């Protein structure tokens, strides 16, 4: 409300995630005018052999 | 058809999931008039440090 | 928290949607033990020529 | 089972979509060994001012 | 890579979306260390009668 | 651009995934006329007790 889903390769640290969700929530509050508590974010991580770009798995790029 | 995706923090038991998918499928059949076999549900679980509300990770709330 | 996304062909009435979100929220509260206010649901509708089963668009099945 | 969601800018023709869902379903059957009827695909289209790359809306790129 | 999907009620202006995707992309670059051009964002909008919180459609809250 | 998300039960081999993302990317290039490098695919896998059809978990079907 809004809900944000981030699809990423696994491997980021908790510190990276902490910074990301803080900054993204602020971006949502600033631009869409919603209260911070209304913003939920989920990072959906997959292994490198479950994600591809250009038809090639990230485990093989 | 319809497909339901549920984004949740990891940690629910199989019993909880069994009940949820049963009740959700019934809700879909009752309200949207589709056959139960047409309803698929996937629960996408993330660790507490990959989900946030109000700009704060669930691992730190 | 949890967030539910429902992918469906467009065309349901507001009455159908009203019943669905009520029943689905109750299913979540009952089985996952979350407060109703924590449950958000979004129905993502596409036209029949943007959805397929068995490799055939719903507009042509 | 599996379910495929394709996020794209709006504007493709029905003919383009017809070809895509046919070929994608065949790719799923061939590689994952599932029956074609088990494959559902939904194309979620957004206008050019609701999609961005590199921080710039497609309506302004 | 990462891909960001934002589920929201329809009705934001292009100016609001322009600011959001710019700030979100910067948050991703800063925290996850990816190039801006690798970040795609799609805002998936639904009408108020297709989104609910607490079991009640936004069109009726 | 487009982004493809595939929701599946866990358990496919890297060889199966390698073939799938190659064929799906080719299907996208052929039908939607986009360059291969613009196509990203993420396979979101869940355990059998987190996915259901017909109201029954795959771990119990």
From TrEMBL, chains A, B, C, D, E, F:
<keyword id="KW-0413">Isomerase</keyword>
<dbReference type="Pfam" id="PF01361">
    <property type="entry name" value="Tautomerase"/>
</dbReference>
<comment type="similarity">
    <text>Belongs to the 4-oxalocrotonate tautomerase family.</text>
</comment>
<dbReference type="InterPro" id="IPR014347">
    <property type="entry name" value="Tautomerase/MIF_sf"/>
</dbReference>
<feature type="domain" description="4-oxalocrotonate tautomerase-like">
    <location>
        <begin position="2"/>
        <end position="60"/>
    </location>
</feature>
<dbReference type="InterPro" id="IPR004370">
    <property type="entry name" value="4-OT-like_dom"/>
</dbReference>
<protein>
    <submittedName>
        <fullName>4-oxalocrotonate tautomerase</fullName>
    </submittedName>
</protein>
């Amino acid at each position: 409300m809004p809900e944000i889903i981030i699809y990423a390769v696994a491997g980021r640290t908790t510190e990276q995630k902490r910074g990301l969700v803080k900054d993204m929530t602020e971006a949502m509050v600033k631009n869409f005018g919603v209260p911070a508590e209304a913003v939920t974010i989920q990072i959906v991580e997959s292994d490198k052999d479950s994600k591809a770009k250009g038809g090639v798995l990230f485990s093989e790029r």
